[in-house]
Write a structure and sequence with these properties.
single chain; about 475 residues; Aldehyde Dehydrogenase, Chain A, domain 1
């Protein structure tokens, strides 16, 4: 029996479970091996025709996808809230952001992939960009639409056929994305959702018809998928976790930094790779920052995510809630100071309160882990050197937010912080116009912008003939 068949027997169905109530409201059959093989074959066949379509045709379909997302915005947002617990307001904003990304690549992909002439001794030389073929996406639950569409928009405009293996707790969102793409007019097999487990995803990646993979997820998932892709010499993009620093220096606009810090830590109920997690504050302003920050966290209302008055919804699963609480309790037992929260409510659902901890030495488990919940870790530093050293004292390197109006300090942070992005006097946020990705254990490769669309193309050199009388070297 193959690995894929064993996986199907172990997880013959997927379920949608409301993290606010514990209610199971959706049941979905997973695919057997023969169905997976058929879908890969269909994707390969679809690619042969789709790669010959022009940018104008692809752009029309992707623009229509943006319109469908907006037309179905309320329905899609409610589904995401029910499946993974983000507030309805956040889910509505997420769907809209997907539409923005679709329009961005519909408008810019042709320019990003235009042939580039190069002057050599040849009659003509240029670089051209061609699609790779069938590309697999392994995507997480925390932004069930945005994570997928920021992969779809560039990869499909480049002419690839796409397969989606989504997280097992958001099967409804996964199938809804497929519906959006079909309603937009894309050929049915150019984008397909595959309801399979994690072992099934590895089996798909091993298939020689699948040419590349993009993964957003945990460090453990990355090592498995990246290892499989590497052994098969397949291109991959890995966007993983982060323990992102939020640094505040004395020259900062303190009121704005505090207000932003509250949002940056609790966005998506604290379940975001780019959420600020470690708050590194200069001693001269630390007490004032902490007082305002803790008060801001305390003022957040935790409750049913469908309600407009709710600021914090539940965490996505009981396991995530237990992991976050375990890290907090371990820190407390080792001497961490609790400034807010720290105890779980007795209510039904996966609720985890806004929590702030200080006095956190490196030996605590929470110090080096990505805490995927609304838990803020606060550190006091005496100068910029200490701030940069502490910011880099993690195996992660995804993003960072720095608050200072001093130009020299800004330059030092930009050059000194080991991360894929540095946001000065602003909260970290992905943007279709800017490349997104990390370094160290936060992954490799880039999504979005011009850089993202170049990840899944064959950058092909074309050289035609030689200029009359040109000397040609006998060596390469």
């Amino acid at each position: 029996m193959t690995t894929a068949q064993q996986e199907h027997l172990q997880t013959a169905s997927m379920h949608s479970v409301n993290p606010a109530t514990g209610e199971t409201f959706g049941h979905y059959d997973t695919l057997v091996l023969s169905q997976v093989n058929d879908k890969i074959a269909r994707a390969q066949t679809a690619f042969a025709g789709y790669r010959l379509t022009g940018f104008a045709e692809r752009a029309a379909w992707l623009t229509r996808a943006a319109e469908v997302l907006e037309e179905r915005r309320q329905e899609l947002a409610e589904l995401a809230t029910r499946e993974m617990g983000k507030t309805l307001a956040a889910a509505l904003a997420e769907v809209q952001k997907c539409a923005v990304a679709c329009r961005y690549y519909a408008q810019n992909a042709e320019e990003f992939l235009a042939d580039e002439s190069v002057v050599t001794e040849a009659l003509r030389a240029y670089v051209t960009y061609q699609p790779l073929g069938v590309v697999l996406a392994v995507m997480p639950w925390n932004f069930p639409y945005w994570q997928v569409f920021r992969f779809i928009a560039p990869a499909i405009m480049a002419g690839n056929a796409l397969l989606l293996k989504h997280a097992s707790n958001v099967p409804g969102c996964a199938l809804a994305i497929e519906e959006v793409m079909r309603e937009a007019g894309f050929p049915p097999e150019v984008f397909q959702t595959l309801l399979v487990g994690s072992a099934g995803a590895l089996a798909i990646l091993k298939d020689e018809r699948v040419k590349a993979v993009s993964l957003t997820g945990s460090e453990g998932a990355d090592r498995s998928v990246a290892g499989t892709a590497g052994s098969a010499l397949k291109p991959s993009v890995m966007e993983l976790g982060g323990s992102d620093p939020f640094i505040v220096m004395p020259s900062a606009d303190l009121e704005l930094s505090i207000k932003t810090a509250v949002t940056a830590r609790t966005i998506n109920n604290g379940q975001s790779c780019t959420a600020a997690k470690r708050f590194i504050v200069h001693a001269d302003i630390c007490d004032r920052f902490v007082d305002g920050f803790v008060a801001g966290l305390a003022a957040l209302k935790m409750g049913a995510p469908m309600l407009a008055s709710t600021d914090l919804g539940p965490l996505a699963t009981p396991a995530i809630r237990a992991e976050v609480h375990g890290l907090v309790q371990d820190a407390i037992s080792r001497g961490a100071k609790v400034l807010l929260g720290g105890q779980l409510p007795d209510d039904v659902g996966n609720y985890s309160p806004a929590t702030a901890l200080s006095e956190l030495p490196p030996e605590m488990g929470i110090y080096g882990e990505e805490v995927f919940g609304p838990v803020a870790l606060i550190f006091r530093v005496g100068n910029i050197d200490e701030a940069i050293t502490l910011a880099n004292a993690t195996r992660f390197g995804l993003a960072s937010s720095v608050w200072t109006t001093d130009g020299a300090e800004q330059e030092r942070f930009v050059r000194g912080i080991e991360a894929g992005s540095v946001f000065i006097n602003a909260m970290v946020a992905s943007d279709p116009r800017l490349p997104f990705g990390g370094v160290k254990a936060s992954g490799f490769g880039r999504e979005l912008s011009r850089h993202g669309i170049h990840e899944f193309v064959n950058t092909k050199t074309v050289s035609i003939g030689a200029a009359p009388g040109a000397h040609r070297s006998k060596t390469e």
